[in-house]
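stage 2 :: seqdesign
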């Protein structure tokens, strides 16, 4: 239910974008479909980072409260356990919203896909992951949760 609620709440900002393009047409030469392509890539990258790296936000708390010892005794990598420590299923809603918007934009743009474009899309999402991860976990990053 939280994933569905998060999907609906975060989808409202795309509706706002759609209303802007409906009212003003093209903005600085970009159509709604082109902006939606970028929007989808950014939200997919942000959702992946937001869902999987929350465990590193609470890492100092784990060490301070001596809960990190429990992680060290488990047979899995500490990094892998840190990645999944605070996984929040509600973040899946943002991911699916980005995916739906991305597929809609690809469909509406009627692009001819080549191997270069597929790699560009994949590496854009990966690059967005690194960018958002560095901003979320830097002391002066976007926010600290």
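stage 2 :: out
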């Amino acid at each position: 239910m939280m994933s569905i609620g998060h999907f609906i709440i975060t989808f409202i900002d795309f509706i706002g974008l759609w209303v802007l393009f409906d009212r003003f047409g093209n903005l600085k030469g970009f159509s709604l479909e082109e902006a939606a392509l970028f929007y989808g890539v950014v939200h997919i990258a942000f959702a992946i980072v937001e869902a999987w790296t929350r465990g590193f936000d609470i890492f100092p708390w784990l060490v301070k409260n001596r809960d990190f010892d429990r992680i060290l005794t488990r047979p899995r990598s500490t990094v892998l356990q840190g990645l999944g420590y605070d996984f929040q299923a509600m973040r899946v809603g943002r991911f699916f919203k980005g995916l739906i918007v991305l597929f809609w934009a690809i469909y509406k743009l009627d692009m001819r896909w080549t191997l270069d474009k597929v790699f560009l899309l994949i590496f854009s999402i990966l690059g967005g992951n690194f960018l958002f991860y560095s901003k979320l976990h830097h002391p002066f990053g976007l926010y600290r949760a």
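stage 3 :: structure notes
- The helical segments are 2-24, 32-52, 54-57, 59-64, 68-72, 78-84, 92-109, 115-136.
- Confidence is low (pLDDT under 50) at residues 141-145.
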